[in-house]
Automatic annotation (TrEMBL):
Subunit record text: Monomer. Homodimers and homotetramers. Mainly monomeric but also detected as part of homodimers and homotetramers.
Bias type Basic and acidic residues, positions: 189-200
Gene Ontology terms, MF aspect: heme binding; metal ion binding; oxygen binding; oxygen carrier activity
Family note: Belongs to the globin family.
Domain of life: Eukaryota
Protein name, as recorded: Globin domain-containing protein
UniProt-listed PANTHER family: BLR2807 PROTEIN (PTHR46458), X GLOBIN (PTHR46458:SF2)
Annotated segments matching region Disordered: 178-200
Organism: Ameiurus melas (Black bullhead)
Domain annotation Globin: ranges: 26-174
Keyword vocabulary terms for this entry: Heme, Iron, Metal-binding, Oxygen transport, Transport
Pfam entry (one): Globin
Length: 200
């Protein structure tokens, strides 16, 4: 049960659609206005969207469950849909998206937020290869909620936001990884925790 999104723009690096590691995707003022306007509708169903995103994520990319200790062995999608833990995690991710939308007029604040999230994902064993999947599933989840308000231009705006955030998170992840190598953190207070269920 996939979502027919072609060229989300969060493609593997060897494809033409993928932004280079050095090039930040560009959010225009039109993108920002469309995202903010659509978010007013999306946020009314925020808990539902969070659950849909992660159930779809685990359905379409079951390897992502390896990052989530609590859900690793759960095969029953209905059990996932009713999981309090999944609902809580979905709400955390939706909260991050809400904060991102709120910071669209102050991109330096969004930059800090997303880079720090990427750093924390290193500590929770959640590598960058998974980040783009969340954007894809978010778009699939909100398209039916927005109905006729969903347009190709709005889809492009949300894709660009997720490209931008993913780019920043990858930077944060790489910074944390480099810092860990420099400091040789084994046994230190910055050692990765054992729990892997709090990624994203």
């Amino acid at each position: 049960m996939g979502c027919a999104i072609s060229g989300l723009g969060l493609a593997p690096k060897n494809t033409p659609e993928a932004a280079s590691e050095d090039d930040a995707p560009h959010l225009t003022s039109e993108h920002i206005a469309m995202i903010k306007d659509s978010w007013k509708v999306i946020q009314e169903d925020i808990a539902k969207v969070g659950i849909i995103v992660f159930v779809r994520l685990f359905e379409t990319h079951p390897e992502c469950k390896d990052v989530f200790f609590l859900f690793r062995d759960v095969e029953d999608l209905e059990r996932l849909r009713t999981s309090k833990e999944l609902r809580a995690h979905g709400l955390r991710v939706m909260s991050f998206i809400e904060k991102s939308v709120a910071r669209l007029d102050q991109l330096e604040r969004l930059d800090s937020l997303a880079v720090e999230l990427g750093r924390s994902h290193y500590r929770y064993y959640a590598p960058p290869k998974y980040y783009g999947y969340v954007g894809t599933e978010f778009i699939c989840a909100v398209r039916p909620i927005l109905k006729e308000k969903w347009t190709p231009e709005l889809e492009k705006a949300w894709k660009t936001l997720f490209q931008y955030v993913t780019w920043l998170m990858r930077q944060g992840y790489n910074e944390e990884e480099e810092e860990a190598k420099r400091n040789n953190t084994v046994g230190s207070s910055r050692e990765r925790p054992d729990k892997r269920n709090t990624a994203l």
